[in-house]
Amino acid sequence: MKKIAVFTSGGDAPGMNAAIRAIVRSGVYNGLEVFGIFRGFEGMIDGDIIQLEADSVSNIIQRGGTILKTTRSARFRTQEGMKAACEQLKTHEIDGVIALGGDGTFRAALDFKNHCDIPFIGVPCTIDNDLAGTDYTIGYDTAINTVVEAVDKIRDTADSHNRLFFIEVMGNDSGQIALLSSIGVGAEAVLVPESDNDMQHLIQVLDKGWNRTKTSCIIIVAEGDEEGGAYKVAEKVKDKFDHFDTRVTILGHIQRGGNPTCMDRVIATRLGVAALEALMNGKRDEMVGIINNQMAYTNFGSAVKSHPPIDKNMLRLTEILSA
Q1: What's the CA gap between 26 and 234, in Å, rounded?
Q2: Which of 12, 103, 128, 225 is catalytic?
Q3: Which pTM was predicted?
Q4: N or C: which end of the chain has fewer CB within 10 A?
């Protein structure tokens, strides 16, 4: 293996740049030529590929987003798009590719192997922490810390005005962000897609807090919750429990941005180097992850097959501590 390429795809995640840096510098260290593919699969089709040197990735470890840019490519889902992408990789004499992204990226890479014989290795980059084969994905730690910082500020207002806040966080199919951040901010309840929600129980929790003369309440809602998100949950609660002044806050894309935490920078660096070494050692069509602080390798099919289960003990903690 002499030439490898790296690209980012799907939603951006804090720590992507740290992973790019690790891949480029470990590649140079091992005597490889490293190329960056801009704009994900879209740039692969267009041949938007340039060589990266060690100094190309200077001063990026602390930056959010991705210097290689990212898109979701409709063209890549076609036979013609995949053929064009493969031709571009071969034109640039690329021997292996490292893909930074989430389940959509790895599903696309899995389809691509039927059209192109160039090996791919995946690095899990998604704030949702929803891939099997790793305890933590790059970007997750930064996202939950962003939520905690924002909700701490909202709590000040909630306390001052005797308000009930429903705060919606990202997680269309996964409640991982909602669950950990709810414990971190001392929320009275959390609603996640993986768990059946009892609205009557939620009313009882709020009523108990009211009777204890609580001056504020915080409910964390994952955007993919079965009740339909924070606004719909707030409407249902307000109809049956109008003691508090009820407000809704959607945190949205601030959860994707910002400088990565130390944990995300270290995880990204470890995974970036491991991905480069995996290619050199002949692995292909696998995602590198960290399980119990050890490197682990999971084929793309298994990594995207199902989301990691929600930790029921953590859900139980939320209920216990809301008393």
Answers
A1: 50
A2: 128
A3: 0.93
A4: C
